[in-house]
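Sequence decides. Consider this:

===
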Amino acid sequence: MSGSPLHTRIWREEAEPDNAFATRTARCHGYDVYGQMLGQARWADMVWLLFKGEAPTRAEATMLDTLAVALANPGPRDPMVHAAMCGGVGGSPAAASLMAALAVGAGQSGGARDVYLCLRHWAQCSDTAESTWAQALTQTGQPTWLAPDDAGWPAIEHPAGFDPHGVRTATIVQQTLATLASMSPGPRLPWMVTQREALEQAAGLPLAMTGVAAAALADLGFNAQQGEMLFLLLRLPGAAAHALEQADYGFKRFPYPQVDLLDDPLNKHQEATA
């Protein structure tokens, strides 16, 4: 029994001959990770192999790397990063800060669930003409394809992939869309570049980073479940870094958002004592 291989569809391990708890070789979908890939493959190659069961082309790996850079740090304005920062400033251990980030970043408002829903819309578009894509992508309400285990999620309040609080398309969203579209095999990202304004008009909202990420993941061939998981994974580095920084800063240097009160009691007190 000690010499039998440990394997799944993804991973196959063989133990050391003298220690059943130590690994001698590990293969990911047939590739010898430590004997062949280590020192040769890059991070995107390994992630692609794990999720899709085959090695990516150079162009696919480069595009995934580019998406990873775009998503690596949503910044302290993002609720996911803010949650990690709260964990850091409160003295929580590393795992707790990351779990807080994952919990907040999993939602439908700018989170991974938004990407999941958008990818499902893209899957719906796969059998339709480009002229109907905008209608499918901007739909609201509960889609008929939601499974019974989706019942615990709140009602969908805005089209997936768009910013419900946005005034116009953020500059970084436009930059990410243009860069990824220039290297995408298509058809979604190139179409989105030419149709963005019309798409936003149909949605009544500006395009969000989740919409760009979903289109990129769809062009790379990831399904909704894979895209949701990858989106969470790719945004963790920024959450981790900000949590560590905030732990060093302490609560007195926590970047609270500035709020201008229309009826500020302090102003009334200053006026009364002037």
